[in-house]
Amino acid sequence: MGKNDNDGGSFLAGLLVGGIVGAMAGLLLAPKSGRELRADLKQKGEEAFDSAKEFYQEAREKSRTILEDARERAEALRQEANRHLAEARLKARDVLKGAEEKAASAVEEAKAEVKRVKGAVGAGVEAARHELTREDKTKA
Description:
mainly alpha, rod-shaped, single chain
């Protein structure tokens, strides 16, 4: 896209220079007196200068407008990116909090299960002792 804009500016500059050269050639080749020729050259030179000055001002204004638009878009994109980042941080914080809660719950469940198994093992050992003691008494 930038290349097309540059080509348009080059074309306009070429058109302006070509017009000036053509006008000067026409003036130089026209049969006029020196005083008339100098006056015409001066007038055409001033016109060409004014045209070039106007073209420069228009180009300068357009470039300012484009630059300001680019700045505004960049600022809007920066603000949007910051908003998305803040949202992502909040979501990550919520996910981590949920994971911590689930992990704490799983740890508590595991502890309770360990206590239950430990109690069952203890009861099994006690029952085995009791049974062995009974067998020993019956044999004796």
